[in-house]
Amino acid sequence: MRIYLDNAATTPLHPEVLEYMLPLMKEHFGNPSSVHFHGRQTKALVEEARKKIANVIHASIGEIFFTSSATEANNLIIQAAVRDLGVKRIITSPIEHHCVLHTVEHVCGCHEVELEYLSVDQFGALNLDELDSKLAENKGMTLVCLMHANNEMGALADVKKIGEICKKHDVLFQCDAVQTVGKYDINVNELNLSFMSGSGHKFYGPKGIGFVYIKGDNKISPLIFGGAQERNMRAGTENTYGIAGIGKALELCMADMVEHKEYITSLRTYLMKSLQDRIPNVKIVSPEDGHYCILNVAFPKNEKSEMMMFNLDIHGISASAGSACSSGVAQASHVLEAIGLSADYQAIRFSISHYNTKDEMDFLLEKLEEIL
Prior knowledge:
The chain has helices at 15-27, 37-57, 70-84, 98-110, 128-136, 159-168, 229-232, 240-278, 308-314, 334-338, 358-371, and strands spanning 3-4, 64-67, 89-92, 114-117, 142-145, 172-176, 195-199, 210-214, 283-284, 294-300, 317-318, 320-321, 323-326, 329-332, 345-351. The protein is α/β, with parallel strands linked by helices. The relative contact order is 0.17.
């Protein structure tokens, strides 16, 4: 048996998305910038996908731009906000994805931009009173960069409250919604978002395609120059098959969202309670009311738990460690360090999809007991 429990890293391609994309790859090869029949035919696919995404997040079609990934989208937002919108301060948190943290560090290091971090508690919850106080200091135009759901532990931010605070102080709010697009209802207007990013491969779409929402009154320049594609916002021939696929994937996810959420939540709850009952001294890192697809679990560190990732893989279970390896050197997770998880624990993230089953959860529990 081979079990995939790393859906927060990437999801499998939905079979209907593949079926939708294959004929397009064979027949719709025109360049969407060309004015002839073949170009117009492909351009229509791009605009159809744009409309689907705009409708799902309640944006205007003119506010959606396609990128190669959410990483590119976040880079575009952060760098353009400083360059074009006069941002002099960025407020973020220590548990953001590295594509945000590394970008704000780079931008603030290259420009006279102040960088501040909010406090988080042991469950990854942000101190929003602190955000309100910081913004009340009025240090000039500020960009607030806070993710909707943390990718490692699944902590959900109160994006509505954050949007209200940002609106109150008339500052920009950028939200990395990679883990929540297609899994939660998102209304960019109700949430007072200035910018938002998403990525197709997180909701059963193809890799290599993402999108950015840019609120209409935020006029910024491109990150990539050299062409007039995406209404002059991103140069380069569009990834038309990927764009068609991301639109289809989001459409399918939203159609089944309520059903999938209920089913996945039941698997997550079963796994969490079973781990607590069957594994001594286990620690649930994820908040109970966190993202329903993500369960981060910490085991007391010993010679058995330190090799757990490898042993799980040997037993046919794909999950994600709470630490990353670079050139063979273990590096502590910045998220788990920020929430104060003791170094005496080894954390593993199990991220679940509607393709998983209760039998797979039982198999995982059985193998964890064997390994430990």
